[in-house]
C-alpha cells in the first residue's frame, strides 16, 4: 500500500521491487486488495482504490491539536506570505503532518495532511529533543543527531537547510501539552533558505499560542464501543 501511494499507476514488477516482495507474493496480495476494493487494476497496472480513499477520509488525527492550531497558523501565514506551515506529530516512528497551510513549496514537496516528513526534518528534530533517547534517522550519525537535538532543546527551535529535500529549508518549534510534554511541532518551510532564520521568533510565538489554546480546549470524548457479533 505504501508503494502504491508513491505513484498514480504502477506495474506489478515495479511494485514488487518497491515493496521488496517476490513477484508472485505481490501479485497474490494485490489480487486480495482488488477484491476488497482497496486497489484498482487496469491492463496490468495498479492504483489505490475507492475503499482506501473512504477509509483515509475517516482518519482524523489530533482533533484537539488541529482546533487549537487553526487561528495561530492563519496568523502566522498572514505575517509570512506564501510559505508553507505545518503541524506535525510523531506516529508509529514517523513524523506525520496533521494540519497546516500549504504554499509555494508544494511544487517540490506537498505538505498535505497525512504526508510523512523525510527523516531528519526540523520537526522530527524538535520531537527528538524531547525524547529520553534520541535515535538518529537514516543518514545521520548518532553523535551528530544527539548534538543537533541538544541544540534544538536549548534554543527551543530546530533549523534544517536543504538536507532532507535539497531545495527546501525549514524551522520548527515545539507545542506543549498542559503537563509540559511536547506533543507536536509547528514548522515553516520555504524555497529560499534566507527566509528561515528570521521566522524563528514568529514560529515560536505560534507554537506558544497553540500550547495555550490546548489548555483551554476540552478533551475529546471517549469513542463509543462498536457492537461485536457473537
Q: Report the radius of gyration as a whole number of Å.
A: 20 Å
Mean pLDDT: 84
Count of individual helical segments:
7
Instruction: Sketch the major β-sheet.
Output: 5 strands, antiparallel
Strand adjacency order, main sheet: 5-4-8-7-6
Provide the low-confidence segments as ranges: none
Ordered list of secondary-structure elements with their pairings:
Blueprint: E1 10-11, H1 12-18, H2 23-36, E2 39-42, E3 45-48, H3 50-57, H4 63-80, E4 84-91, E5 94-101, H5 122-129, H6 142-155, E6 158-161, E7 169-176, E8 182-190, H7 200-216
Antiparallel strand pairs: 1-3, 2-3, 4-5, 4-8, 6-7, 7-8
Can you tag this structure with a few keywords?
230 residues, 3-stranded antiparallel sheet, 7 helices
Overall description:
The chain has 230 residues and is of the alpha+beta class. Helices cover 37% and strands 20% of the residues. A 5-stranded antiparallel β-sheet has the order 5-4-8-7-6, sandwiched between helices. A 3-stranded antiparallel β-sheet has the order 1-3-2. A hairpin with a 2-residue loop joins β4 and β5. α1 crosses α2 (23-36), α4 (63-80) runs antiparallel to α7 (200-216) and α5 (122-129) crosses α6 (142-155). The longest helix has 18 residues, at 63-80. The model has no long low-confidence stretch (mean pLDDT 84).
